[in-house]
Amino acid sequence: MKNTENKGSFKIRFNLKSFIVFFAILLIEVFIAIFVNDSFIRPYGGDILVVMLMYYFVKSFVSTKSVYIVISVVLFAYLIEIGQYLKLVEVLGLQGNPVMRTIIGSSFSWGDIICYTIGGLICYLIDRKHVTP
Length: 133
Description:
The protein is mainly α. It has one domain. 68% of the residues lie in helices and 3% in strands. The protein is built from 6 helices and 2 strands. The protein has a two-stranded antiparallel sheet with strand order 1-2. Helix 2 (41-61) crosses helix 6. It starts with 10 loop residues before the first strand and ends in a 6-residue tail after the last helix.
């Protein structure tokens, strides 16, 4: 008889390796934000990396199948993009707050949706068989 008790479960547990990857991606994102002002790496590479950043942050604290984390993070990124489409910054009256405009964003783009999907696929392909013990 097969034990199915652990299927779909997750545990809260700190994973140093994932946190180091998260921190490295964070440093790359900060470098891109400060020093890169082009029409490819900043808009597209940054959006791919932001999903990877969120994935490894969550993976630093949650132990489960990578596909569950990927789906959750990509859906979250999609929701933020939908918020941009619905002009959430203006609806909430935050258009004067540069931090919130950066976090939530202010312009919808199908290119961003594609980049988020690519970032999620990269994470899935890297970790598809890995569940942190």
